[in-house]
Write a structure and sequence with these properties.
Elements: H1 12-24, H2 26-33, H3 44-60, H4 66-75, H5 82-95, H6 103-129, H7 135-147, H8 179-184, E1 194-199, H9 205-218, E2 222-227, H10 232-244, H11 255-263, E3 268-273, H12 281-293, E4 300-304, H13 318-336, E5 340-345, H14 367-370, E6 373-378, H15 381-386, E7 388-396, E8 403-410, E9 415-418, H16 426-458
Parallel strand pairs: 1-5, 1-6, 2-3, 2-4, 4-5
Antiparallel strand pairs: 6-7, 7-8, 8-9
Length: about 450
């Protein structure tokens, strides 16, 4: 028995993770099924578990889901001992709501181990064939062994993955802190999705991104905030103000009060500063990998802001570079299975616009295509004086768009509230604004004429 190859040297955690992947990852299960001997598994309850997974696949030609396995493990373990039955069910209960750590490592090492065992068996068989068989037959045995366990993932198999299409998929959406906006996109920005805030310079893009991060922290989430424009300390102060309600100008005088308030917050915040145009999406991916090695897994990533990232590949036109940056940001969201928020600058037409649409987006309109949720923030001179403004929902893959919401925005305390919509369309707002401006000009002209007339009379 000691000569029997097994995964024992890799430990229990490795073997449990491998069995969980066999259930959760159908393409991997297809691949390793060609080379896995269940006796490689050291623990009898894991052997029983994998036997049930492969047995179901063979009988119904469909890969089981967690829900199916729950039923299978209740009724199909008659041939196992009572101890193994209990351990199998306890193991399944543990993995139902957990993720496999080191997925890539487990896949690579387990496949390598199993393929080597198959190759060893083929070589032993070829030795026996040397005396009686032809070279071609021996070559066939070796070549067959080399092909086993190779990557055979061709994508979603319509029949084998039938059950996967009917699983309830959760977006794990993270709230924006505005109920009106959350309702629009089914709870907030979801896992693997990219959200973009569009605004002209000075309208408060960084303030909005800080608000989104602060709301996530209040909900106990881990936020990684990349800043390419402001310092880490400046962004930290904005979070201090947003989380405590203490105005930015009063933070230093009330330092102790701020410290006490932030101790009560359940979430975690990592702020990383990079000089403008010095970091690329690859730089961010490397930093995120370092955080994961320290057991820091982001629930939401904020990039302030995407237009200031350096392209991985330089291209002839800036619009093509920006387009690729936003595509890569969405890739980061998918790789890390969390939402990514960033911002984009408008062109000059958005500087004093009542409502900013996607037509005002700077340089690369194509970056709108890859985003899942886009809203603009417009604040005229009057709005800035009155702490008001407007949010326009320009794109929403998970609900309606084209809606305008008035907002209250106080940059002094990083306080942003979305108010009840007035029901006006962007066109009506722009038209009413134009009428108002025309009326103001008429009034000014009228006053000017009356003033000049009175001067003439006095003379």
């Amino acid at each position: 028995m000691s000569d029997q190859p097994s995964f024992s040297k890799f430990g229990k955690g490795f073997q449990e993770g491998l069995c969980q992947l066999v259930l959760e990852d159908r393409p991997f299960a297809d691949q390793i099924a060609e080379v896995l001997d269940i006796n490689f598994l050291e623990l009898s309850y894991l052997r029983a578990f994998v036997k049930q997974v492969f047995g179901y696949r063979e009988k119904y030609n469909v890969h089981p889901t967690q829900k199916i396995m729950m039923t299978v493990l209740r009724s199909e373990l008659e041939n196992e001992t009572e101890t193994d039955k209990q351990q199998v069910r306890a193991y399944f209960a543990r993995i139902c709501n957990s993720e496999v750590e080191g997925r890539g490592y487990i896949k690579e090492v387990s496949l390598d181990f199993c393929r080597k065992q198959k190759l060893k068996e083929a070589m032993m068989e070829s030795v026996k064939l040397l005396q009686s068989s032809s070279f071609d037959e021996i070559s066939s045995v070796i070549n067959t062994a080399l092909k086993l366990g190779s990557d055979n993932n061709f994508g979603h198999d319509y029949i084998k993955d039938f059950e996967a299409r009917f699983q309830l998929k959760t977006r794990n959406a993270i709230s924006m802190g505005w109920s009106e906006m959350d309702d629009l996109c089914k709870g907030g920005l979801g896992s693997g999705e990219l959200g973009v805030v569009i605004a002209p310079t000075g309208a408060g893009k960084s303030m909005v991104l800080t608000h989104l991060g602060a709301q996530a922290i209040k909900n106990g989430k881990t936020v990684v905030h990349y800043t390419l424009e402001l310092s880490e300390a400046s962004i930290g102060n904005r979070y201090d103000s947003c989380l405590t309600g203490i105005p930015l100008n009063d933070l230093f005088q009330l330092k102790e009060l701020v410290y006490e308030a932030v101790q009560e917050i359940e979430g975690r915040l990592i702020i990383k500063e990079y000089p403008t145009k010095s970091a690329s999406t690859r730089t961010l991916s490397t930093h995120l990998e370092k955080l994961r090695k320290r057991d820091i897994k982001p629930d939401i990533i904020i990039v302030d802001y995407g237009d200031l990232l350096r392209p991985v590949t330089y291209q002839k036109e800036k619009r093509n570079e920006l387009e690729s940056i936003y595509e890569e940001l969405r890739g980061i969201a998918q790789e890390n299975k969390c939402p990514v928020w960033t911002a984009s600058q408008t062109n000059r037409s958005g500087l004093n616009a009542e409502v900013i649409t996607m037509e005002s987006i700077s340089e690369a309109f194509n970056k709108c295509f890859v985003a899942d949720f886009i809203f603009s923030v417009s604040r005229t001179v009057d709005d800035k004086n009155n702490n008001t403004g407007r949010i326009f929902v320009a794109k929403n893959r998970n609900g309606p768009d084209g809606l305008v919401y008035p907002i209250f925005m106080d940059p002094g305390s990083v306080k942003i509230k979305v108010l009840e919509p007035t029901g006006e369309t962007p066109g009506e707002i722009i038209e009413n604004s134009a009428k108002k401006q025309a009326e103001n000009l008429k009034e000014k002209y009228k006053n000017y004429k009356e003033k000049n007339r009175s001067k003439s009379n006095n003379v």
